[in-house]
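OP here, attaching both records as promised.
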Amino acid sequence: MPTLVLARHGRSTANTGGVLAGRTPGVHLDDTGVEQARAAGSRLAGVPLAAAVSSPLERCRETAAEILGRQAYAGEHDAPPTPVLTGEPGLVECDYGDWSGRKITELTGEDTWKVVQAHPSAAVFPGGEAMADMAHRAVEAVRRHDSRVKEEHGDHAVWLAVSHGDVIKAILADALGLHLDSFQRIMVDTASLSVIRYTATRAFVVSSNTVAGDLTSLYAPPTEGETAAASSDAVVGGETGVRTDETPASPTSEES
């Protein structure tokens, strides 16, 4: 099973201004956001990324470029090439419609705000997208790319997807088996990294919303003669970080 690293974009000019950017063009990373993206790239520098996809919006593409620019394997002999970034419309920000470009403080009194907080599965933004539709297309996108990565690069591949806060929260909620109405319990900070591994029967959330710590251990190259696929079974009693012949090949916890 490949390993998916979900990255939220770094802090943007809209974040700084307290504005709900949505799909408004021309929203870029601010100086802090650039530094956050570079830090995320440093955390992944020792992980050879097999593929990289991103929301087409500028703040995500800029974040992805900073991460890919720090791949330690780039240019090394026999090293895998740094992947070409692919735009993925399924990972674009939720279409907030008439809310786009407005101050968050102006929106908290709206009736729709209360629905978004309590029952997001029923929320439809005026002139925009239903949150349920956003969740559906985002989950479909990452599962489709994960299947492609597995087919092209194998079970040990690690790949990157860069997107937005609500989009990543929806993907994590799906992986955790949560109803969309519970996704507001999940936090996704700017430039945070979350890790998911999909198997035939379930998804494993290895980590979520991490902003520090080297992630080199995510990549475990196949050993000579290894053919067995990773198990969908969870280890009873919890992961140990130690693999034996009797231990199912399920994910190990990320070191922090």
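Record two, same layout:
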Amino acid sequence: MGVVLLALGGTISVPGDSRGARLSGAEITAAVLDLADLGVGVEARDVHAVPSGSLTFAQVLDVVEIAARAVTEGADGVVVTQGTDTLEETAFLADLVWPHDAPLALTGAMRQPAMAGADGPANVLAAVRVATAREARGAGALVVFNDEVHAARWVRKTHSTSTAAFASPSAGPLGHVVEGRVRMLLAPPRHEPLSAEVDRERLAAARVALHVVALDDDGAQLQGLDRTHRGLVVAGFGVGHVPGALASRLGTLAEHMPVVLTSRTGSGSVLRHTYSAPGSETDLRRRGLIDGGFLDPYKARVLLRLLLAAGAARADIVEAFASRG
């Protein structure tokens, strides 16, 4: 059947000065001059045409459902085009629930189609190659950008304007597209997919806050959080530290909701038992915080919200972060 391309909007679909106008998926693929030479049929479908900063969890799960159905009906793989602002988060959410070995390749653009050096067509071409590559099967959701292939769990947007905007600081790219060939160098760890059939009301109610720790932070803004949210992700200093004045407040919150500890650095893992001062990772674990492992704060928030929406108990949440973090 070839590839199904799902178009969601974003810079790749913005045709210059036309205010509010968007290119359709068919128009995006028509601009990829070498696509016909691949000998792969590409069926373009338009889904949620919104900036990626306005995407919701429910919309992303809708897209994954459509993509999964396309594979069930015979597609070799699926490409999703969207804005880059939340691409690292939508890719990870998709990866958590993706049920197939067939590749799900997400891509976009940093330059609008009318700009000099527009990168969208090259990114789409590379994504289609990845979506049909035998080497990419079983790797889950992948971000394909600038001829690099990144695992959803590791990829980060690391530059605001560069066409080489995505990197995987903790692991490096899984592979590259070289002379039209997909070369996979690494295989990401895979887990049983979580269910994408989440009740939308429970999903909306599963609000998870994200608190980035800063110098002299006493966490006063977290007061009353347990009345408005069901979970919290803390982006701590370095290996997972917070000011001593904040530690007790986090411990109190952990008595009422899951609180996940991550690092604000963007790469590397939080520690478990190296330091013991107030506000250290050992102190915070003793107070009930959950170890986020290698997951960055944004990915941890995605996982926690999906688990809460599915009704996971605390023990299940701890286990999920232990295996996926």
